[in-house]
Structure formats: structure tokens, C-alpha cells
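Notes from hallway chat w/ T.B., transcribed later so I don't forget. T.B. wanted the structure written out for a chain they're using in a teaching module, and asked if we could keep both sequence and C-alpha cells in one place. Agreed to drop them here.
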Amino acid sequence: MKPNIDTYADWYKDKFDIHLDGKASSVYEYVIQKLFQDIENSNFWKDLQKNLINYNDEYYLENSYSLLKIDKIQLFSKSYKSLINKSYRKNILQNNNFPNEPVDGWVFHENWFFKIKDLLRTTITVRYLDGVEFICNKIKELALQNDFTYNADFEAREEGYYAAHITLTGKFNIVDEKWDNKEINFPIEIQITTQLQDVIKGLLHKMYEDSRISASLEKDKKWQWDYKSKEFSSNYLGHILHYVEGMILEVRDKQNKK
């Protein structure tokens, strides 16, 4: 029988012989703070902050419209509680091989600094749909100049979520659970989303998080046929807004051709 989120810590202790609220927590907090500082002090991050204004100006010259809402972005770290919730989803909820390990292996304290891609993340919000790919291309160019590997996933989820998720991976030094130094390939996530999608994301985030760590391990029924459910209205709103954003671009481009 699969453990629920309330009994996950006990299962984890039996499986990996370490308390989630003990050394694993202390090491995580220390390492994530160090990585946070290393990223903010990196040439890549400094250049990205400086270049945002230039990116906005270049887009304006091409399209006669401003692209970015702000000219500075903020780095965020995943809380330890959120990390544990994610490991629970990977190891238990989404693991069809349980009680054996998932296809991609266990997610636990020895590997989560390089296996979980969004421990450090930021979001860049653009006003127009075509700005997502525009900014992705700029970040790719900057990342390769600073010895990061680049991967972009243009997500279009069933629940109406649309955004580009960029993963940049670079070499960083951390400590392990024995406090020994080691070098890892650490991923950073940059989400590129539109202004409308960002509003929806903020409104629905709490509901989305609650559903992901639900104690129920049964598969959800088809929300597309349950018009009274919260998912029906919220998920389709995301799809509708994505369509509207495409129509806005079509109108804008026609005006620019006149």
C-alpha cells in the first residue's frame, strides 16, 4: 500500500535511513542558500538583468509594442516543504512501479540537487504570445556564452497551462549529507509566460498544489465532462485565454501592416 503525504516521512526513514526533519533538512537549507548566492553573483545572471531593457527595446523596434512588464527579475528558491512534496509525488503518487523505484530512479537527498529542475527558478512575464519564443532565444544565446547548457520545453498541458520552461544547467560546488564538497551539474529553471497566463496561474496556484498532494491515490475522473467541477471552468479558461492571445497577435500584426 502506498503511503500518503502524512506517513511519507516514516516511509522515507525506513527506505533511506535518514530523517527528513533532521540532517536532510539542514543540508538542504545550507546548500540552497549557497547556490542562490552563486547564481545571483554569476556573470550570466548579471548579464541577463542588464540585457532585459535591450531585449524590450529590440522587440519594440520590430513590432511597435513594448514586450516586458518589468526590467528586473527575481530569483526564488523552493522551500524544503515543497521539495518534500515533490519527492512524494515522484516517488509515490506518480510511481507506477511502487514499491519498487520509479523508472527514472528514486528522488531523494543524495540526488535532488541535480534531479529536481526548479529548486532555483525565476519567471519572465511578457505581454504578447510571440514574446515567449523571442525571450527564449535571447536566453539561449546568453546561456551558451556563459557555459550553461540550454533546454526549452514549450508546455501546453491538459489543464490549460501554457508557458515555456527553460532549464539551464551549469557546474556548481555543494556539500553532501556528510558535509563533503562535491561538484554537480545544477539546473536552474526560467519560466517564460504571458501576462494573461500569469494572472490565471496566480489565481489557480493554491487549487493546483492541493490537488497534486491529495491523499487520494485514485486517478481523477474526466473533468472535461463534469461542468460543475472547479477544474472545468478554470482549466478551460486557460485554453480560452491562450486562444485569445493568438487572436490579439493577429489583430496587432494586421494593424502593423497598414
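Follow-up for T.B.: Residues 230-257 form the longest helix (28 residues). Might be a good example for the class.
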